[in-house]
């Protein structure tokens, strides 16, 4: 019998969040060069920290909650993601990675974490079509980085557009590449990704599957001050069309209903491996997540393996080498 874990791939990531370390604060009053930003992005100052703390203590409501803050708390674990990427690059390439590209970057939290963890001279470029999350990320993630913040460039562009340098590591995270729904689009994206890499660069995608992945159902997780709902609303087996939503509910009965929605194609792992190879990648390795000690949930640790395990819900990385 297959083991069971949450059908919500995002929730798995949230379990890792608890292990992530808090970021150190920047020195007060320090003046440093900031990130580079393309036109079209309006950056607003975040609310003062005091106000945020008070809000968190009281519990959120739909009127006061910030959807990006809750999204990060519920589904992202940037320290663990970046530690995995740096480790895989170091062990397969025998050197430290310096230049990073984050496709579908949203608030660019991974880019900020990459710069924070990296040596001086590290760079990160974020690509997203939507100016709103980029602006939010610029206002919230880069202040505490000091001079390292100047290593970031935000591009308000499609992920198939070129960037400014040869990347050591390029990523598409939280299944965002599922937004490309035809074989031709995905192949074009992979070809462009390969071209953009340094000679020993790696392109890394995450993905999930298992029988639960295509069930139409809700998965609910409680966090301090709010409840996170992952809704698998629709799946068409004939086309692969796959519609999901995120809702946040609050103790006072209010909610941010379907505040994030995703219209994806459900791609299968082997389809993506075939396309990566067709795009010219020399080698594509799979890393599957392991189980916690009780065998009830993922442990957040990804190990190289070819076959994977036929469980109802699995998560993996594909690591494609140029
Ligand atoms: C689910 S969010 C991902 C946020 C973040 N990367 C994460 O790990 O949670 C998907 C993002 O992809 C962006 N997006 C969708 N299609 C895109 C495309 N073709 N090129 C660039 N960005 C795109 C959306 O604007 C959205 O901000």
Layout of helices and strands:
Blueprint: H1 9-17, E1 36-37, H2 49-58, H3 67-75, H4 78-93, E2 99-103, H5 109-117, E3 123-127, H6 131-141, E4 152-155, E5 167-172, H7 183-196, E6 197-209, E7 217-223, E8 226-235, E9 241-249, E10 255-265, H8 269-278, E11 283-291, E12 298-304, E13 314-321
Parallel strand pairs: 1-4, 2-3, 2-5, 3-4, 5-6
Antiparallel strand pairs: 6-13, 7-8, 8-9, 9-10, 11-12, 11-13
Helix pairs in contact: 4-5, 7-8
Ligand types:
S-adenosylmethionine
Radius of gyration: 19 Å
The CATH superfamily bears the name Vaccinia Virus protein VP39
The main pleated sheet reads as: 9 strands, mixed
Strand content: 25-35%
How many β strands by DSSP?
Answer: 13
How would you sum up this structure, described in words?
With 322 residues, the protein is α/β, with parallel strands linked by helices. The chain has one domain: Vaccinia Virus protein VP39 (Rossmann fold). The protein is built from 8 helices and 13 strands. The strands form 2 sheets. It has a 9-stranded mixed beta sheet. It has a 4-stranded antiparallel beta sheet with strand order 7-8-9-10, with helices on one face. Strand 3, helix 6 and strand 4 form a beta-alpha-beta unit. Helix 4 crosses helix 5 and helix 7 crosses helix 8. The radius of gyration is 19 Å and the shape is globular. The N terminus is likely disordered. The structure holds S-adenosylmethionine. The site of S-adenosylmethionine has 15 residues, from loops.
């Amino acid at each position: 019998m297959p083991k069971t874990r949450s059908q919500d791939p995002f929730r798995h990531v949230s379990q890792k969040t608890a292990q992530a370390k808090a970021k150190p604060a920047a020195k007060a009053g320090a003046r440093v060069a900031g990130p580079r930003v393309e036109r079209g992005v309006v950056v607003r100052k975040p609310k003062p920290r005091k106000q945020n703390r008070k809000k968190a203590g009281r519990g959120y409501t739909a009127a006061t909650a910030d959807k990006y803050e809750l999204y990060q708390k519920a589904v992202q674990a940037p320290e663990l993601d970046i530690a995995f990427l740096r480790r895989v690059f170091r062990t397969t390439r025998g050197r430290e990675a310096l230049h990073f590209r984050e496709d579908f970057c949203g608030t660019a939290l991974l880019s900020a974490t990459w710069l924070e963890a990296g040596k001086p001279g590290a760079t990160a470029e974020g690509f997203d079509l939507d100016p709103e999350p980029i602006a939010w990320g610029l206002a919230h993630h880069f202040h505490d980085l000091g001079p390292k913040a100047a290593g970031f460039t935000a591009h308000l562009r499609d992920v198939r557009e070129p960037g400014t340098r040869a990347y050591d590591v390029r990523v598409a995270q939280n299944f965002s590449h599922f937004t490309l729904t035809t074989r031709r689009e995905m192949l074009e994206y992979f070809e462009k990704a390969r071209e953009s890499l340094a000679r020993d660069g790696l392109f890394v995608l995450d993905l999930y599957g298992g029988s639960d992945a295509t069930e139409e159902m809700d998965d609910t997780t409680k966090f301090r001050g709010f409840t996170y709902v992952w809704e698998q609303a629709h799946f068409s087996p004939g086309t692969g069309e796959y519609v999901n939503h995120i809702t946040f509910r609050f103790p006072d009965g209010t909610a941010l209903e379907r505040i994030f929605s995703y219209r994806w194609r459900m791609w299968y792992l082997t389809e993506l491996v075939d396309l990566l190879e067709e795009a010219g990648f020399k080698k594509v390795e799979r890393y599957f997540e392991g189980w916690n000690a009780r065998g009830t949930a993922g442990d957040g640790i990804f190990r190289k393996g070819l076959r994977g395990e036929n469980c109802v819900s699995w998560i993996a990385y594909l690591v494609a080498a140029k």
